[in-house]
Inverse folding.
């Protein structure tokens, strides 16, 4: 045969071996570092690097941040690995899951400065409340204007034929905001009425997407889809301005705060039972409530700061907070959540 | 090869599969044991919804296979027999769809066929949430598998045999069925089997393009594990899927072994299209490729080019450069390990049907159960790079193993025997005779393994660290936030990923074939 490809084959194998060697040397060097603080976070975690570096030098630790999927998935990973915890501290647990986390006994109580006030109310002292946000409806202003139909004034109106094929929601079985929205409808209407509403929405051409990204980027009319109303966050219109191409003076989308369509989520940070570096882990909890973090997170994670003294980012003026919102005792969610999801699947998909 | 050396070769891939797939799955089953595993194992199919999902998973996978065969074989034949400008480039870009992240591919498809898509508006139709769009998406991802296998297989056909049958009076059609078809059948079945498995256990695409009603069983498993922590039900479903797909893999391995014919390769020379019919065939094939494979990619590129300066600036971010470097080094490492595992597997399993089928295990094991099982099994290693790379490598190695096994199957024994008789050691025979002869098959396998590593299937299921962000994860991060700039940046990053992959394919798949066949022909 010919030498050309034998040679190139051999050289490509050598090349691959060299690449492999570089990689292993890299992983070996990181394994040797002492005193790591292992932090598990949900997939939306995003803080400026200099801030994290500052914490590292002040607390004298190396942060080892691990992304554990969305908050529901992350908590389940913590529950599964309870016997050999994969992190020392967690950020991104939401208040709806507090009871589940407590029942599974994966968290340790914390009683420092940051664990007072709101934290006591939302997490019963198990976690530090860091930030909050609202799952709600967003609408695409341009498409709604073009269609000429006035916006619905209630969820019941949204189920009328005039709004056929207007709404896209996320599947509560695979998405955090989808689940929160389902809880909001139940909190507002009660279980039976809520599922009747979901049934009528199915008949009214409501679309179900897998997760927020799919709903927002493939089905929402603002991004080329067919549905002018989407289940998203109260902060999304502000993010639309922040990430807009030309400098906008108004957001192309806005929140539609219908009764029963707003759910407040509080995100917290907590110590993991069996975790190491307890002192540093506690410092991390306080760090998440520090002014720097509370200011920065508004435009990186698009949540509202829990610390009331923190200055609001300028762009957040496009994200007014709703006057009324739904919430639900965590104990009720822990008890009924799973059965509601399967009932929802039966009502909407089967 | 001696039995003992075969066993030694098989140790490596078996260890990888056992440690990275089987033990994690069993660990998850063990965790769910007690809580009614036994019961749910047998009652799982009494649920009509699940039955419908299984039936649908099966139907769409079979339909995709049929369509991929109908469109793929003629295109492969044209690409393998005719020389025309741009042919080499097309061959090497064929695999691009494979690396496009699912969601980006969906955005590309919807830009054409979505409610505000170019084609839908021109034709006045809306295909979103119909099975048609899902099938189109399936073909976008999988047609390249069939075409590529077909082209490589047609290169194995012995020119003298075809010439002989023609001079004995066979029509070109008859010559195809009696001479060419027996040679290429095992390669095609092999690729169709892959297509089936991909579509059957498909996760992302079905959900975005087909709508929730067309979700496959894997989605159900994901919900049960990640959201409801119902491990008993989840693992019994996962085991059922493993059994069903395992049967398909086993059946295929049997068929492939029966079909594989040892031939001496004497490639048929490429010719330039001369008659109008030839040109029609060439343009028809190009049209098929354009319609199914190129159009969605061009839609992505087009959207990326509309990006404004902010998004372009993001390409030079430290973050992007870091992701680029990570993508490169992770893929290189995974490819290296996958190649070693794949070659060892193929050499060790010659002839054994069960072992051939075993090479499919990484493709049919439920990714969610494996990811969660790994967490339980190796809690200290969960956030380690070694585990992540190992997972990529195990997911990618079946391509090398399969391509090598198919190549070995059509390799005449006598060449090895001659080398051995002339005094070459087995190692030397392998290095100087077998490997060079198998080079095209190995390259093909490696190119697909590289595509798998670059495209990172199931990547979001594993624990990750921010400093390990790759291009694919960066794209998903961007698409996790609202705003036009994020969408633009995601599209640009997707183009960067495709460009990088195209370069990798060119390096792995260097153009030795034409020069060969031309000189021989």
């Amino acid at each position: 045969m010919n030498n050309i490809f034998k040679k190139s084959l051999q050289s490509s194998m050598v090349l691959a071996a060299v690449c492999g060697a570089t990689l292993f040397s890299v992983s070996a060097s990181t394994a040797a570092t002492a005193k790591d603080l292992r932090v598990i976070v949900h997939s939306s975690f995003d803080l400026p690097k200099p801030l994290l570096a500052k914490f590292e030098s002040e607390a004298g630790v190396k942060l080892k941040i691990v992304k554990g999927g969305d908050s529901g998935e992350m908590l389940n990973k913590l529950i599964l690995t309870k016997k050999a915890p994969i992190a020392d501290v967690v950020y991104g647990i939401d208040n709806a899951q507090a009871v589940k986390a407590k029942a599974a006994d994966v968290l340790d109580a914390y009683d420092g400065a940051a664990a007072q006030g709101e934290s006591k109310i939302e997490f019963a002292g198990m976690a530090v409340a860091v930030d909050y946000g609202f799952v709600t409806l967003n609408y695409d202003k341009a498409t709604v204007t073009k269609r000429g139909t006035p916006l619905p004034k209630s969820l019941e109106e949204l189920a009328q034929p005039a709004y056929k094929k207007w709404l896209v929601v996320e599947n509560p079985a695979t998405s955090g905001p989808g689940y929160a929205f389902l809880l909001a409808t139940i909190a507002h209407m009660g279980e039976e009425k809520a599922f009747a509403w979901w049934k009528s929405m199915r008949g009214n051409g409501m679309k179900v997407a897998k997760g927020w990204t799919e709903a927002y980027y493939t089905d929402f009319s603002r991004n080329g889809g067919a549905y002018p109303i989407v289940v998203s966050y109260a902060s999304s219109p502000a993010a639309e301005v922040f990430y807009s191409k030309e400098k906008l003076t108004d957001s192309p989308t806005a929140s539609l705060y219908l009764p029963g369509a707003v759910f407040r989520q509080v995100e917290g940070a907590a110590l993991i039972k069996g975790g190491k570096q307890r002192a540093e882990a506690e410092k991390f909890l306080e760090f998440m409530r520090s002014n720097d973090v509370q200011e920065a997170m508004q435009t990186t994670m698009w949540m509202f700061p829990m610390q009331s003294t923190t200055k609001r980012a300028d762009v957040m003026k496009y994200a007014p907070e709703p006057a009324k919102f739904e919430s639900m005792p965590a104990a009720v969610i822990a008890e009924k959540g799973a059965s509601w999801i399967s009932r929802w699947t039966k009502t909407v998909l089967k | 090869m001696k039995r003992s050396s075969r066993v030694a070769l098989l140790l490596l891939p078996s260890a990888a599969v056992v440690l990275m797939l089987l033990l994690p799955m069993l660990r998850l089953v063990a965790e769910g044991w007690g809580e009614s595993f036994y019961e749910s194992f047998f009652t799982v199919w009494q649920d009509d919804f699940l039955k419908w999902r299984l039936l649908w998973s099966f139907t769409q996978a079979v339909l995709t296979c049929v369509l991929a065969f109908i469109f793929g074989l003629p295109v492969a034949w044209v690409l393998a027999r005719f020389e025309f400008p741009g042919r080499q480039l097309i061959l090497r870009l064929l695999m691009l769809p494979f690396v496009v992240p699912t969601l980006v591919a969906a955005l590309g498809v919807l830009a054409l066929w979505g409610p505000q898509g170019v084609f839908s508006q021109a034709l006045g139709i809306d295909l979103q949430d119909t099975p048609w769009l899902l099938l189109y998406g399936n073909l976008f991802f999988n047609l390249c598998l069939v075409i590529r296998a077909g082209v490589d297989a047609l290169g194995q056909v012995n020119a003298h045999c075809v010439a002989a049958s023609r001079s004995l009076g066979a029509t070109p059609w008859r010559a195809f069925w009696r001479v060419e078809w027996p040679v290429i059948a095992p390669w095609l079945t092999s690729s169709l089997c892959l297509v089936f498995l991909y579509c059957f256990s498909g996760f992302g695409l079905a959900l975005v393009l087909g709508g929730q009603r067309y979700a496959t069983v894997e989605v159900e498993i994901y919900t049960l594990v990640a959201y409801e922590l119902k491990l008993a039900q989840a693992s019994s479903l996962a085991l059922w899927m493993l059994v069903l797909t395992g049967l398909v893999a086993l059946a295929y391995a049997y068929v492939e072994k029966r079909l594989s014919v040892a031939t001496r390769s004497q490639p048929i020379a490429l010719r330039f299209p001369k008659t109008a019919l030839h040109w029609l065939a060439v343009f028809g094939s190009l049209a098929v490729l354009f319609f199914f494979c190129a159009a969605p990619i061009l839609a992505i590129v087009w959207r990326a080019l509309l990006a404004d300066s902010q998004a372009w600036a993001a390409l030079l971010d430290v973050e992007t450069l870091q992701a680029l470097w990570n993508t490169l080094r992770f893929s290189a490492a995974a490819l290296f390990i996958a190649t070693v595992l794949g070659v060892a597997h193929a050499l060790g399993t010659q002839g054994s049907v069960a072992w051939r089928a075993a090479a499919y295990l990484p493709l049919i094991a439920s990714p969610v159960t494996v990811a969660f099982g790994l967490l339980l099994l190796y809690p200290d290693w969960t956030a380690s790079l070694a585990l992540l790379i190992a997972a990529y490598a195990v997911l990618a190695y079946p391509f090398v193993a399969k391509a090598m096994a198919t190549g070995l199957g059509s390799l005449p024994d006598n060449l090895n025997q001659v080398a051995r008789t002339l005094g070459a050691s087995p190692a030397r025979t392998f290095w100087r005779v077998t490997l060079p002869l198998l080079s095209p098959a190995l390259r093909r396998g490696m190119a697909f393994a590289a595509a798998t590593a670059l495209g990172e299937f199931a990547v979001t299921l594993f624990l990750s660290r921010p400093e390990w962000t790759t291009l694919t994860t960066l794209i998903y991060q961007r698409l996790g936030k609202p705003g036009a700039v994020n969408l633009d940046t995601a599209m640009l990053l997707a183009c960067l990923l495709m460009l990088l992959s195209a370069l990798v394919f060119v390096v792995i798949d260097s153009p030795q074939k034409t020069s060969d066949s031309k000189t021989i022909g």
